[in-house]
Amino acid sequence: MTVLVLFRLDGQVAIVTGASRGLGAAMAVALEEAGAKVIRLSSHDADLSDREAVTKLVDRAGGAGILVNNAGIIRRADFLDYSDDDWDAVIEVNLRSVFALSRAFARRLVERKSGGRIINVASLLSFQGGIRVAAYTAAKSGLLGLTRAMANELAPLGINVNAIVPGYMATDNTQALRDDPTRSREILARIPAGRWGAPDDLKGAVVFLASPASAYVHGTALAVDGGWLAR
Known about the structure:
The chain is an alpha/beta fold. The chain has a single domain, classed as Rossmann fold. It is built from 8 helices and 6 strands; from the N terminus they run H-E-H-E-H-E-H-E-H-E-H-H-H-E. It has helices at 3-6, 22-33, 51-60, 84-112, 134-154, 175-179, 181-190, 203-210, and strands at residues 13-17, 37-41, 66-69, 116-121, 159-166, 221-224. Strands 2-1-3-4-5-6 form a 6-stranded parallel β-sheet, sandwiched between helices. Helix 5 links the parallel strand 4 (116-121) and strand 5 (159-166). The longest helix is centred in the middle third of the chain and has 29 residues, at 84-112. The chain starts with a helix and ends in a 7-residue tail after the last strand.
């Protein structure tokens, strides 16, 4: 198999959650450019906090062999003022729904006796504490652990589970940071690449982890962060 063929996804079907804009939209386009048919899921298609709806999503997706768990929400507040409602909402969407969707997806793959790919979108806050984002940090730290735990059990079944770790990206989630001159300057000063990331920066990573090129890659966290974690 030639190198270029290793990165092709012709005939594959992929599910991408949170695909209406930002990182999810860019990754969906990348998978399509590599030859896959992409089922884009957004908040308009399904409420990922609805536990019954999550499983039904997989049933509707038919023969999908790639799942990209990108959907997520963030709620900011000082720790002393962080509400139970905000905590529950973030954990439900960013962690529990990923578990439920991945479990349903993996079960279908096993039933079909086919391999597949699960790609979770983690965060720099899978490694760091952050400020005013207690639930988001807890969820993304848990997601990295879940990625590794899933990889341990699913690799023998032919299912690759890995994570992408985006750095500071120019998306809606970071708008408040980019609008704050002090915080924006501090963040840029630590990024060796010297710029905020763009959604298109994730295209190569998602295609690699979805393709035959990553056949022997299990449980890894691929940072696309401009060098932030190396600083």
